[in-house]
Design a protein that fits this description.
By secondary structure, the protein is mainly beta. It has a domain of 197 residues: Exo-inulinase, domain 1 (Jelly Rolls, Sandwich). It has a 19-stranded antiparallel beta sheet that branches. Strands 21, 22, 23, 24, 25, 26, 27, 28, 29 and 30 form a 10-stranded mixed beta sheet that branches. The protein is globular.
Length: 541
């Protein structure tokens, strides 16, 4: 299992011996570079260039490539300059991660670049906390196969970040003396001319052998047809069992006709009877002749458990039959998900280009409202409604017929019978929000939230904290203390790039979020969160 870079960053034991800090100019890739410590990857320095050598798992959506840390040098106030390049052929929504002030495996600052969305994020980690956003910048493009110059300047509480001599971020945070790390998320990244200037201390510490500080657990690692699990859905049943459903295949698109499984991807389920501490072996819920994907699960008012999913006919898609490629199926269980009916095709709209992807919401008027989206040559978010506990559904109602850049919507009912919908931006830089004051009959025109998010999942906790879990960067959470009027900075709960999170609140008030990792052997992970008015922190499993 790949470990995340941030949790393995080289911390310094209490026996650290330091020489007095003095103004120095250090070339990190030359001066005492033999003490470089590699984490969750394999790196080497050749001809002045630091590059990862283990990039076989780096594909369109993979997780961390790794990182290299330099424990010989410590600094608090400094200027760090380096050049980085994302080579041609490296794909995915990620980029460089530069760590500094690393005082321990869970105590540091880091600058993450998300190349695909031109996003730069400055974050900090503190003991007992996740990485939390201090500031971000949108719109600084990173060209592929070109060297870019990064500058990080720390002076007391002031942190400044510039790219190619263009100021991006200026923030304030309490400084700590620590070491430097150069890493990569999702994409292959190379570094050169990494120089540290300022009152630099020489450290005699040996950081080898520190344990990783991971907070996540594995929900499912291999369901039997290739070891690729993704797109989970999660429900807490009336008997307090947890069901997690997910896509089971061998890659991001597992096409029918493959020798590994002739029907393509299928839908599987695991169960937990102890609030997410342990999970059963996977069982198959649905396996149609198409590539069954993105499942979700919910329990009706009469106790029936429903599982539904889109099923893609990739041959129709390849033939550009965009109104006839996206089927929908559903199955039912009357024994809390232990046995299931045969999948039945579900005609959501008049044409086969409507994607179902997340569970409906039970509204205060007793109806179910489910977010869907049209998925043809464009995407557009909509809702469908059931008045008979999920037996029949209305035709889709578009939130905004003019906006063709909204997909993967999720909704939540808030006090005052207001509904909030947050949507993936579909190629745009920021997620969308839309509001309804009549329980989903009409909606405001979608507008930008000001932060990026794929696959949003909304949860209003019993303490009144509104959560939005999402992908990009990594697996992250925003939270709101005023029911969506304003939002916190991002909290990154895992650096892996899959996400598609699903959340439930547990009886003791903790929140469990499940998501997927992506990459060649993608797993379903679980993370427990402590959510209060003070923020989001790791919770004990």
């Amino acid at each position: 299992m790949r470990q995340t870079v941030l949790m393995l960053c080289a911390g310094l034991p209490a026996t650290t011996s330091l020489l007095a800090a003095s103004p120095q100019k250090v070339d990190l890739l030359k001066d005492r570079a033999e003490r470089m410590v590699q984490t969750s990857g394999s790196w080497r320095i050749a001809d002045g260039v630091l590059r990862p050598t283990d990039v076989m798992h780096v594909d369109d959506y993979s997780g961390d490539v790794g990182g290299a840390f330099f424990p010989a040098w410590m600094a608090r106030d400094f200027t760090l300059t380096c050049e980085f390049m994302i080579p041609k052929g490296s794909t995915g929504a990620g980029g460089p991660s530069v760590y500094f002030h690393c005082a321990a495996p869970d105590d540091y600052h880091v600058v993450h670049f998300i190349n695909y969305w031109n996003t730069t994020v400055l974050m900090r980690a503190r003991p007992g906390e996740f990485e939390t956003e201090l500031a971000h910048h949108q719109g600084a493009p990173i060209e592929i196969d070109k060297w870019h110059r990064l500058e990080i300047r720390c002076d007391g509480e002031h942190i400044r970040v510039a790219l190619d001599d263009m100021p991006l971020i200026e923030a304030r945070d309490a400084p700590k003396s620590g070491i430097i790390g150069l890493g990569a998320r999702v994409r292959e990244v190379r570094y050169r001319n990494a120089r540290l200037e300022g009152p630099v201390s020489t450290s005699q510490a040996n950081p080898d052998g520190l344990p990783p500080m991971n907070h996540w657990s594995v929900v499912c690692q291999d369901s039997g047809i290739g070891g690729y699990e993704a797109f989970p859905g999660l429900v807490r049943l009336a008997n307090d069992d947890l069901l997690a459903v997910f896509y089971s295949g061998w890659t991001h698109v597992s096409r029918p006709g493959d020798l590994r499984h002739p029907k393509g991807g299928r839908i599987c389920l695991v169960r937990s009877a102890d609030q997410g501490k342990t999970w059963t072996k996977p069982q198959v819920v649905g396996d149609t002749p198409f590539d069954d994907r993105d499942p979700f699960v919910w329990q009706g008012k009469n106790g029936t458990v429903h599982c539904a999913w889109p099923a893609c006919d990739w041959s129709a898609y390849s033939a550009k039959k965009y109104d006839a490629w996206c089927h929908a199926f559903r199955a039912r269980s009357t024994d809390n998900g232990r046995t299931w009916s045969e999948p039945q095709e579900w005609r959501v709209g008049e044409t086969l280009d409507w994607t179902v992807w997340t569970a409906p919401r039970l509204l205060s008027d007793g109806s179910w409202l489910m977010p869907v989206y049209k998925n043809c040559t464009y995407t557009s978010a909509a809702v469908i409604r059931s008045l008979d506990d999920g037996k029949t559904w209305s035709r889709p109602l578009l939130l905004d017929e003019a906006n063709r850049h909204t997909d993967e919507p999720d909704i939540v009912e808030l006090p005052g019978r207001r509904l909030l919908c947050i949507m993936r931006p579909a190629g745009k830089p920021h997620a969308w929000e839309s509001w309804s004051d009549d329980l989903g009959k009409t909606w405001t025109k979608p507008k930008s939230l000001g932060w990026h998010a794929h696959s949003p999942n909304l949860l209003l906790t019993s303490k009144g904290v509104l959560l939005c879990a999402h992908r990009d960067p990594g697996t992250a959470v925003h939270y709101s203390l005023d029911c969506g009027k304003t939002w916190s900075g991002m909290v990154m709960i895992d650096s892996c790039g899959g996400a598609y999170p699903g959340m439930v609140e547990l009886p003791d008030g903790r929140v469990l979020v499940v998501y997927y990792t992506e990459g060649e052997r993608s797993d379903i992970r679980g993370q427990f969160l402590e959510v209060t008015k003070k923020g989001v922190r790791p919770a004990t499993p």
